[in-house]
TrEMBL record:
<comment type="subunit">
    <text>Homotrimer.</text>
</comment>
<dbReference type="InterPro" id="IPR007691">
    <property type="entry name" value="LpxD"/>
</dbReference>
<protein>
    <recommendedName>
        <fullName>UDP-3-O-acylglucosamine N-acyltransferase</fullName>
        <ecNumber>2.3.1.191</ecNumber>
    </recommendedName>
</protein>
<keyword id="KW-0808">Transferase</keyword>
<dbReference type="GO" id="GO:0103118">
    <property type="term" value="F:UDP-3-O-[(3R)-3-hydroxyacyl]-glucosamine N-acyltransferase activity"/>
</dbReference>
<dbReference type="GO" id="GO:0009245">
    <property type="term" value="P:lipid A biosynthetic process"/>
</dbReference>
<dbReference type="InterPro" id="IPR001451">
    <property type="entry name" value="Hexapep"/>
</dbReference>
<feature type="active site" description="Proton acceptor">
    <location>
        <position position="229"/>
    </location>
</feature>
<keyword id="KW-0443">Lipid metabolism</keyword>
<comment type="similarity">
    <text>Belongs to the transferase hexapeptide repeat family. LpxD subfamily.</text>
</comment>
<keyword id="KW-0444">Lipid biosynthesis</keyword>
<comment type="pathway">
    <text>Bacterial outer membrane biogenesis; LPS lipid A biosynthesis.</text>
</comment>
<keyword id="KW-0012">Acyltransferase</keyword>
<dbReference type="InterPro" id="IPR020573">
    <property type="entry name" value="UDP_GlcNAc_AcTrfase_non-rep"/>
</dbReference>
<feature type="domain" description="UDP-3-O-[3-hydroxymyristoyl] glucosamine N-acyltransferase non-repeat region">
    <location>
        <begin position="18"/>
        <end position="86"/>
    </location>
</feature>
<keyword id="KW-0441">Lipid A biosynthesis</keyword>
<dbReference type="Pfam" id="PF00132">
    <property type="entry name" value="Hexapep"/>
</dbReference>
Length: 316
């Protein structure tokens, strides 16, 4: 799509030379021919090194756009990017190329394997499973009935995905207009699940906007867990039932998330940290410590606080 067409869609002013835009991407990984956006001064530091051909920015940041990168002024760059994401969304149905299923894999009746997808030796795909296009599934995996694996998902070896899990659905991302409408952000990334991961029944793992949502090797995820877009779970994590992990959260290795715990987005939990059941993680946490409560504190502090509260009411 030409920059001039993009400006027409957004109602933005077009000037200068026209150019072709082949896709959308984030500032840090955008390349030649791609459009990115910057919507706040705190992200302006990423502008100077961007390799994008053009950037949506508000008028206050146009002077920060480096030479050689075309600045497209727009009052709400995040909203503009959401509007454009529909035009650059990947097609749900790709070219009709045959799936590559190992002779030593078993795909049971009623399962569907999409175009150009690969299934490795010893893998069992049970009835009702839907596997989209361009999916890779390694060796000795088990995909239980009615699990759904969206396009472009990459799954390692010895992975077990239980019934009704959904891997690679769109993240919950919207930009908002002044009159209160919610504009969907289309997600073109994927999910990567490394070796020896187990994913419980009815768990959902969202694809990223641009890059990958990653579940690293050895991690075990219980039933009814929600993992948002762009998250990264380190090796050997334990995530207990009804936990919700918001977008762009990073868990280090061997992190334990207790039942019904939850995180805000864009934070980091250090290696070997443990969050007790119903913990509300609203900030980044150091590793090798135990935490509880909301607002979250170290477990020993939370226990002392609750003991004081109990004594107070007993004495009064």
């Amino acid at each position: 799509m030409k920059i001039s067409e993009i400006c027409k869609i957004l109602g933005a002013k077009f000037s200068g030379d026209d150019m072709d835009i082949t896709g959308l991407n984030s500032l840090d990984i955008a390349g030649d021919g791609e459009l990115s956006y910057c919507d706040s001064p705190k992200n302006a530091k990423f502008l100077k090194n961007t390799k994008a051909s053009a950037v949506l920015v508000n008028s206050a940041l146009t002077s920060d756009v480096p030479n050689g990168v075309k600045a497209v002024a727009y009052d709400n760059p995040h909203l503009g990017f959401a509007i454009l994401s529909k035009y650059f969304a990947k097609e749900l149905l790709r070219d009709n190329k045959p799936a590559l299923i190992s002779d030593f894999a078993k795909v049971m009746s009623g399962a569907y394997v999409g175009s150009n997808s690969k299934v490795g030796n010893g893998t069992l795909i049970m009835p009702g499973v839907f596997i989209g296009d361009n999916v890779e599934i390694g060796q000795n995996c088990t995909i239980h009935p009615n699990a759904v694996i969206y396009n472009d998902t990459k799954i390692g070896d010895r992975v077990e995905i239980h019934a009704n899990a959904v891997i690679g659905s769109d993240g919950f991302g919207y930009a908002h207009t002044k009159d209160g409408r919610h504009i969907k952000i289309y997600h073109n990334g994927n999910v990567i699940i490394e070796d020896d991961v187990e994913i419980g029944a009815c768990t959902t793992i969202d694809r990223s906007v641009f890059k990958s949502t990653i579940i690293k090797k050895g991690t075990k995820i219980d039933n009814l867990v929600q993992i948002g877009h762009n998250c990264e779970l380190g090796e050997n994590c334990i995530v207990v039932s009804q936990t919700g992990i918001s977008g762009s959260t990073i868990l280090g290795r061997n992190v334990v998330m207790g039942g019904q715990s939850g995180t805000a987005g864009h934070l980091v939990i250090g290696d070997f940290a443990q969050c007790a059941a119903r913990a509300g993680v609203s900030k980044s946490l150091d590793g090798n410590k135990n935490y509880a409560g909301h607002p979250i504190v170290e477990l020993k502090e939370w226990l002392r606080l609750n003991a004081k509260i109990n004594r107070f009411f007993k004495d009064n």
